[in-house]
Structures
1.
Amino acid sequence: MFHRIRKMIRYAFRPAARALLSRDLCFLSDGTGGKLIEFDPSSGSADLSRQASLYVHWPYCLRRCTYCNFNKYIPRENRDDLMTECLQRETETLLQLSQVSSITSVFFGGGTPSLAQPSTIAAVLNTVSRQVKLSEKAEVTLEVNPTPVGMSKLEDFYHAGVNRFSIGVQSLQDEDLKLLGRDHSAHQALQTIEEARRLCPGRVSVDVMFGRPKQTVESWESELSELLKVCDDHVSLYQLTLERGTQLFKQVQRGEVTVPADDVTAEMYQCARRTLQQHGFQQYEVSNFARHSAVSHHNMSYWKGRQYIGVGPGAHGRFALLEEGGVTREARTQTLEPDVWMCEVQQRGHGTRRRIKLSHLELLEEVLVMGMRMTEGIHHKHWELFCPELGLYEIFGTSIEVQEFLQSGKLILDTRGLRCSWEGLALLDSMLPALLVELERQISPRLQKDYAADGKTEKTSIM
Ligand SMILES: C[S@@+](CC[C@H](N)C(=O)[O-])C[C@H]1O[C@@H](n2cnc3c(N)ncnc32)[C@H](O)[C@@H]1O
Ligand SMILES: C[S@@+](CC[C@H](N)C(=O)[O-])C[C@H]1O[C@@H](n2cnc3c(N)ncnc32)[C@H](O)[C@@H]1O
Ligand code: SF4
């Protein structure tokens, strides 16, 4: 089970605290084919099965950073026009399949989406608006590599409809940037932040990485403090993960480069949390911090288990398909390789490589793993949306192991719901297995009873 969860969620954020990572779920069935209705104080009740966020993957980079194994390619020739056409076409197809009537946020990630033409961004956004409601206020984020070219295009991206920039700063040490294989300097990153803040004040995020070669807790603390002097209201922390197959992995294996030990990295994480707090940032998720409520709505929708559609090579999605006889929930992955993906989109309108129907238990596992990443944790009402048959107290209140986490103050289960304490959030990864085991222990017998009564079995893999 854990292997599956790890595999399914690994695309998203790198965990600052090595917690089981982000992934999402979707879906909104009460198990009887009914609709999931959530009460949102700002907009009243919302039928979440008719809403989704949209992730769009731009798969190209100018070069490979030494540590990165995300789905990215160095293009041999410029196929940007065809890529744009295919992104539009797949957006159309998946919007139709999902039957959503509104898109609540859009995230252009990659790869390096700031290499795309602003007209590509505008074209995809137009495709969305032609088909469904895309509110003018919807968050539209673009990831930006802080190179001079990236910076010079920010204004055009803004006019194309982007209203939030996420800038891959990674480090403010030029020497480290070189070792990481980044194609920008610290000075260029600072200039890009300034320009992005001019265009989208209060809506600029920076990605910064710790656990890097040669880094010490002290150097990290002063680097982060420097960054906090110039950054805007959102920071994402990435703990460097040594990924098999990357250049950095080989360098470390050959002993040419060393990375800080685990206990040092753990101290770096705690140090960053303290420093960010001192600068007025609130931690709202394992790796994410915001000032003045500038949380990322797109990412929140993942952690809250809302539906999302993933378009582009290697993109992931979670959405419900309306099929004969009721609602099914699916995890979708698009074909990884851009040329193959483009052929598929031209031939059949989409490049979906894998669809997995999530069982009720799998859905609840996702809600748990994702929800516990947020500092607010899982509210009773939120849990009830997905699991009306069994509450958080009933599932977790009697387990001896969970009781130990509660008594030691790592977990909190109260009238609000289930969440990690400050100390517990850094240890989430070590607590999740016990929580998942307890969930399965409580839910499986009920499911078996229900299925025996109905005479049906759960199917998971579709293609
Ligand atoms: C996949 S990149 C895409 C955005 C953009 N190309 C960039 O580099 O900022 C998103 C984030 O993932 C981070 N990342 C990629 N590989 C990582 C690794 N092995 N460990 C930690 N963070 C990683 C990047 O540094 C970046 O901040
Ligand atoms: C979640 S984003 C970083 C968010 C950023 N720190 C912010 O707050 O705006 C990091 C990376 O996750 C990956 N990612 C996010 N959503 C995805 C999806 N639905 N499918 C595939 N990859 C996704 C992309 O590679 C993206 O560059
Ligand atoms: S620019 Fe971003 S996506 Fe491209 S290789 Fe570097 S970290 Fe990976």
2.
Amino acid sequence: MVPATTARLIKMVPKMATLTTLLATVGSSMATLMFVWSVISQYLPYELHHIIRKLKLRLKDLLYPYVKITINEFRDKALSNRRSDAYVAVEAYLSSINTSKTSKRLKADMEHHNSNLALSIDEYQTVNDEFQGAKLEWVSGKSSSKALDKEQISFYRLIFHNKHREMVTQSYLQHVIERGKEIRKRNRPKRIYTNVCRSSGSASSSSASSWVYSVFHHPASFETIAMDEEKKKEIIEDLMAFSEGKDYYARIGKAWRRGYLLYGPPGTGKSTLIAAMANMLKYDVYDLELTAVKDNTELRKLLVETSSKSIIVIEDIDCSLHLTGQRKKQEKAEKSRLEDEKKSEKAAGVTLSGLLNFIDGLWSSSCDGERIIVFTTNHVENLDKALIRRGRMDMHIELSYCGFEGFKVLAMNYLEIETHQMFDTIERLIGEVKITPADVAENLMPKTLLDDPDKRLSNLIGALEKAKEKALEKAKAKADTEKKAKQLEENVEPTIKESKVLDEDQTMQSKAM
Ligand SMILES: Nc1ncnc2c1ncn2[C@@H]1O[C@H](COP(=O)(O)OP(=O)(O)OP(=O)(O)O)[C@@H](O)[C@H]1O
Ligand SMILES: [Mg+2]
């Protein structure tokens, strides 16, 4: 007996033979057609060729209405080993759209200076995206390219329906690149840039200032800053409103910038506040050393090189330049300026108007994205009013001596205590003397491994008492000097009066004669 399946197979054999014959017939007809077409097409006029090509494209569009855009990892590996910016941005973007959930094969990499593993989709994986109601598909792959020395290079390919072509090329790709760049910046450690003078190596030994960076690790935060709580809250709210104010700034037609002037005695936390601002907003810091800038043109060049989401800082602005000299043309300042010019070739230097242009340039649309500029000074009264007027420096923040509230923040930071029996004495003394948060912090630091909170608080009380004594001595010395000056004035006045009377007598006598 023949089993049922075998019987069915035997029945199918003639059908399969018919199919094979059919395929062979179609194949040979196609080959004949193509041969005939290639012969005929040689004799067709150019216009007809053109029409046929257009028809072919339209037919292809009908059968396959999708567009593909490929973004390669390298433009020309032979020329540079640098990955293309677009590829890197797409990689970051794709990793952000929930890659770990949709893709089963991922790549993990650890970037230089970054302790976090960055995930991205592995080769030949697909990620689906949606934008303005359109469905889009990204595919990762590898291809060998003649241009790239036949090396295999990775690529991302975007596939979408032809009807979305305009939207994709005009909005979606820009959105992907912007978001990708943003994600990359957010994920990498913050940087602190400083401008250094570099010799160009030419015979004229000219030098130019350029930015160099290192990783920004500063533990400062708003929680650990000792300052008036109300003021602290106001600054935080101002910064948050700024960082989230893209649409608002666009609506009111103002560049997305904000200027902060921090002033106060040394050691009151100006630099610490800048670090706290950078940490909170996750912005890079550009620490601009004006004395290393040759002239106004170079200053402008440095400005253009700054990136968005950054804080540009000019510390001790009154010491950096002869900015005050424009209003107070003191001989001393002028003399030192001339000496400086002789010493270096920075003959022109950065002037007040150069700096004003720099800030206004920053405020203009020549640089995109948000930027904050911060000036610090110990002597706000010395600064030119034009430099710090509202609109250039929007918020003026005074950092002052340590109050009891500030001390409590420092006690929490350094000793991890909220209250202590010695706090009452400290509150009384801190109200009587001027002590900077830096000095308070120094006293709360352990001097030996055995120093407990009691010891450190008594160190502070000792320092406060000493400061009080000193202040009293100073006040006494001042009072003494004033008293002596007054006495001297009183002694001199009668003598002048007497001599006046004598003079008058002599005149009377001579008139009488
Ligand atoms: N308000 C503060 N809150 C917390 N710590 C502070 C504060 N002020 C100063 N300190 C401490 O003192 C040190 C010096 O402070 P900082 O450098 O911020 O002062 P500054 O105002 O910038 O001084 P300068 O005018 O000399 O540049 C900081 O490292 C920090 O430890
Ligand atoms: Mg400082």
